[in-house]
């Protein structure tokens, strides 16, 4: 059973209240570290920890005058603690707070997305094992190639999502860095101990070196990883769209009672979820481009990245969270039509066995060029005239020199294509059933 989607879980991370709370966490931890260094009196630390609080409305009100969100935030804190407010943000710069807090938000977002991927992997594995031997035609260029199984297609997707999970784990690690090193990263007015203390308490690493900011190649890696995951979902969804076409109809999104497909045509059952996912993937890819643009900033920093991240941070993570849930639910309920798969597999009158015939002739001693020519000639005739490929081969004098009817019969066995299916599945699923 797929858990119900709850947008609030991800959106809460990006809410103004949580953003300011993360800023406050950084400020209080910095004060704790400075108190340990005897830079702040213990009485002041106690006052700050007990009395500061977040009031979004008040911060917004102050910002109308300051035109600076961090200063507005700090002003609202000092209103609560009087003279001890002078110890808050001592030796820090805005980006110490902003970038360290953003790292926590991105890390928490990644943890939710990893849970989403794990749920999808469970479903893909189940569908792969269920359909391990569900025969269908494999296609290249959209044209019938050779038989595969629907389960093999699911195993392929499972393995791709495993790679995506590894990418996200790596991206989460890359983004889990904070900095409390001051205006241009030189620790001129803040002891390095403060950075180590704050980052450790927040579950982050301290950036080995920084300018005024955490370098944006880390963020670009994170958002590019999200874009790759979204693109995989786009790929999978596109395949479902192709399989649901009326002429194919090998798989179909679940069409619930009362659902409507068209305002004009009552018969329509459209792949709307897949189309929705393909559209959303375009958005997530665009966020990756924006993150890449943020890498090049002026000197030790400018703030051209700030406006970008205020959009792509919440949007990319919330959209991908929704995409993963929606695709998982769609695959959980996906309807397959094995009989139609067999029908489509047989529609080209056996020409899908052409490579097997080609190799058999080569093994019998013909040159590859001669074998290819005789097989292709018969395959084209079969395709164009709707004749059975095997019958044409049996009547071909060149083929008859090398292959008897019983040998051809053995070739025209679809199980020949599936002899290594167990090997593939064992390799993908590590012998776990």
Record keyword descriptors for this entry.
single chain, 433 residues, mainly alpha, Fumarase C, Chain B, domain 1, Fumarase C, Chain A, domain 2, Ribonucleotide Reductase Protein R1, domain 1, 3 domains, two-stranded antiparallel sheet, two-stranded parallel ribbon, 18 helices, 6 strands
Number of helices: 18
- Tell me, what's the shape? elongated
Largest sheet composition: 2 strands, antiparallel
Pairing-aware structural class of the strands and helices?
mainly alpha
Average pLDDT confidence is 95
The N- and C-terminal alpha carbons lie at a distance of 19 Å
Weakly predicted, low-confidence segments: none
Structure description:
The chain has 433 residues and is mainly alpha-helical. It has 3 domains: 7-87, Fumarase/aspartase (N-terminal domain) (Fumarase C, Chain B, domain 1, Orthogonal Bundle), CATH 1.10.275.10; 95-115 and 144-188 and 208-344, Fumarase/aspartase (Central domain) (Fumarase C, Chain A, domain 2, Up-down Bundle); 348-429, Fumarase/aspartase (C-terminal domain) (Ribonucleotide Reductase Protein R1, domain 1, Orthogonal Bundle). The chain has 18 helices and 6 strands. The strands form 3 sheets. It has a two-stranded antiparallel ribbon. The chain has a two-stranded parallel sheet with strand order 3-4. α1 (7-13) runs antiparallel to α11 (304-333) and α7 (150-175) runs parallel beside α18. The longest helix is centred in the N-terminal third of the chain and has 37 residues, at 94-130. The chain is elongated. The mean pLDDT is 95.
């Amino acid at each position: 059973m797929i858990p119900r989607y709850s947008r609030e879980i991800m959106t809460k991370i990006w809410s103004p209240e949580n953003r300011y709370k993360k800023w406050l966490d950084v400020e209080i931890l910095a004060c704790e570290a400075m108190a340990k260094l005897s830079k702040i009196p213990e009485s002041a630390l106690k006052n700050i920890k007990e009395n500061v609080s977040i009031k979004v409305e008040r911060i917004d009100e102050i910002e109308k005058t300051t035109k600076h969100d961090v200063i507005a935030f700090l002003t609202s804190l000092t209103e609560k603690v009087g003279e001890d407010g002078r110890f808050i943000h001592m030796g820090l710069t805005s980006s110490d707070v902003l970038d360290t807090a953003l790292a926590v938000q991105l890390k928490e977002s990644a943890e939710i997305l990893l849970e989403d991927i794990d749920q999808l992997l469970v479903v893909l594995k189940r569908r792969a094992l269920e359909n391990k031997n569900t025969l269908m035609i494999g296609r290249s260029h959209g044209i019938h190639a050779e038989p595969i199984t629907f389960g093999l297609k699911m195993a392929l997707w499972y393995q791709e999502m495993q790679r995506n999970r590894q990418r996200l784990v790596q991206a989460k690690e890359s983004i889990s860095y904070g900095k409390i090193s001051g205006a241009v990263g030189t620790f001129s007015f803040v002891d390095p101990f403060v950075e180590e203390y704050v980052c450790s308490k927040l579950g982050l690493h301290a950036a080995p070196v920084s300018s005024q900011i955490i370098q944006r190649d880390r963020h670009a890696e994170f958002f590019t990883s999200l874009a790759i995951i979204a693109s995989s979902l786009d790929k999978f969804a596109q395949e479902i769209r192709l399989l649901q076409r009326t002429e194919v109809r090998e798989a179909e999104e679940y069409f619930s009672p009362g659902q409507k497909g068209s305002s004009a045509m009552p018969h329509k059952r459209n792949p709307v979820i897949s189309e929705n996912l393909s559209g959303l993937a375009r958005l997530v890819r665009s966020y990756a481009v924006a993150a890449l643009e943020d890498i090049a900033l002026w000197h030790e920093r400018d703030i051209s990245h700030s406006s970008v991240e205020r959009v792509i941070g919440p949007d990319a993570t919330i959209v991908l969270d929704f995409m993963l849930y929606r695709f998982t639910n769609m695959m959980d309920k996906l309807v397959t039509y094995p009989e139609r798969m067999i029908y489509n597999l047989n529609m080209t009158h056996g020409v899908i066995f052409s490579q097997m015939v080609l190799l058999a002739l080569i093994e019998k001693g013909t040159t590859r060029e001669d074998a290819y020519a005789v097989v292709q000639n018969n395959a084209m005739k079969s395709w164009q005239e709707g004749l059975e490929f095997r019958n044409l081969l049996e009547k071909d004098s060149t083929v008859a020199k090398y292959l008897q009817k019983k040998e051809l019969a053995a070739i025209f066995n679809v199980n020949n294509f599936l002899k290594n299916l167990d090997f593939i599945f064992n390799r993908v699923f590590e012998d776990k059933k």
